[in-house]
Design brief:
It is a single chain. By secondary structure, the chain is α/β, with parallel strands linked by helices. It has a domain at 2-99 and 142-169: Ribonuclease Z/Hydroxyacylglutathione hydrolase-like (Metallo-beta-lactamase, Chain A, 4-Layer Sandwich), CATH 3.60.15. It has helices spanning 41-53, 71-74, 77-84, 95-99, 101-118, 123-137, and strands at residues 2-4, 7-12, 21-26, 32-34, 63-65, 87-91, 147-149, 154-157, 166-169. Strands 1-2-3-4-5-6-7 form a 7-stranded mixed beta sheet. A two-stranded antiparallel ribbon has the order 8-9. Strand 3 (21-26) and strand 4 (32-34) form a beta hairpin. Helix 5 runs antiparallel to helix 6.
Length: 183
């Protein structure tokens, strides 16, 4: 769905209860993909199909900008970077989650499992929650990070010069259980 002359919203399936996630294509001298979707063949196929409708191939992506460290937003960033040579940009607080998702997610999962055990959650329910954590873990692959940003940074995107670039302000309103870095 075109949001503007150079901005297109792309809805990607997530295979999660939250439903589809929005990614955005910013077209210009640099093609920027804002969020990448989860690592899943259906998501990648949807992304390639929608990019194709815009006359863009995966190999045309120059930057993958990750808004925050949830698998449905960055899970296939590494795949896209490998296919296109695109740089991957992420908030510095989410860097470890994207670079070494398995370790970071195991730490997060263990934290929640310990919390749930303290509340007296039944073992069967804890096993279901653990299974869900394991499934979510399958929806991301490690990604190289080429640039990090921090709260207050201004990102000039599109390569048209400051008067025509998309400018995003990095902020961090992280609610509980959310990602610490958020754009």
């Amino acid at each position: 769905m075109a949001v503007g002359p150079r901005l297109t919203r792309i809805r990607l399936p997530t295979q999660l209860p939250v439903g589809p996630v929005n990614a955005y294509l910013l077209r210009g001298e640099e093609n920027v993909l804002v969020d990448a979707g989860p690592h899943h063949p259906e998501s990648l196929k949807s992304l390639e199909k929608r990019l194709g409708k815009e006359g863009v191939k995966l190999s045309d992506i120059d930057i993958v900008l990750i808004t925050h460290g949830h698998v449905d937003h960055y899970g296939q960033a590494g795949e896209i970077s490998s296919a296109s040579g695109a740089e991957v940009w992420v908030h510095e607080l989410d860097r470890e989650m994207v670079v070494d998702f398995a370790t970071a997610y195991d730490e997060r999962s263990d934290f929640y499992r310990r919390k749930f055990l303290k509340t007296g959650i039944p073992t069967a329910m804890l096993e279901r929650v653990g299974g869900f954590f394991d499934y979510v873990k399958s929806l991301a692959r490690p990604s190289p990070i080429h640039r990090t940003f921090r709260d207050g940074d201004t990102l000039e995107l599109g390569g048209w010069g400051s008067s025509k670039s998309f400018t995003l302000q990095a902020t961090r309103p992280a609610p509980p259980a959310s990602s610490p870095g958020r754009l």
